[in-house]
Amino acid sequence: MDEQVTQRVAVRPSGVELEVLDGEDLFTAAGRLGYRWPTVCGGKGTCRTCFVQVEEGAENCSPVDPLEREGIEALRRPVDGLTRLACRLRVEGPVTVTKRGVRRRVQE
């Protein structure tokens, strides 16, 4: 059985550490691991609520795709690789991002 490759993403200011699977976006990884990530559209790339600020490891981030570029521009932020949408962001190495509101889901 092949072992899945994972990459570490640190989320500030909460101190959350996520293990993101190869090919998985940051938003999906957070949900899989039991974290609530602020969003309105549920990870479809349309609400732009999930945006993060990349603090370290921008070189380990996937390229900005056209849908993400449109979202970042709508946020009136530069498309410089430092503002990203978590639902579109895939990583290939360690990354640190800032996003307020990321927390464990409440168990019912």
Verbal overview:
- The protein contains two helices and seven strands; from the N terminus they run E-E-H-E-E-H-E-E-E.
- The protein has 108 residues and is α+β, with helices and mostly antiparallel strands.
- A five-stranded mixed β-sheet has the order 2-1-6-4-5. Strands 3-7 form a two-stranded antiparallel sheet.
- The longest helix is centred in the middle third of the chain and has 9 residues.
- It starts with 5 loop residues before the first strand and ends with a strand.
- The mean pLDDT is 94.
Question: What's this model, at a glance?
Answer:
This protein is 15% helix and 28% strand.
The helix content, as a percent range, equals 10-25%
**Strand order, biggest sheet?**
2-1-6-4-5
The oligomeric state of the chains shown is single chain
User: What's the total helix number?
Assistant: 2
- Give the DSSP E fraction (strand runs of 2 or more residues): 25-35%
Compute the CA-based radius of gyration: 13 Å
Task: Give me some keywords for this one.
108 residues, five-stranded mixed sheet, alpha+beta, two-stranded antiparallel sheet, 15% helix
What is the topology?
Blueprint: E1 6-12, E2 16-21, H1 26-32, E3 35-36, E4 51-56, H2 66-74, E5 83-85, E6 95-98, E7 103-104
Parallel strand pairs: 1-6
Antiparallel strand pairs: 1-2, 3-7, 4-5, 4-6
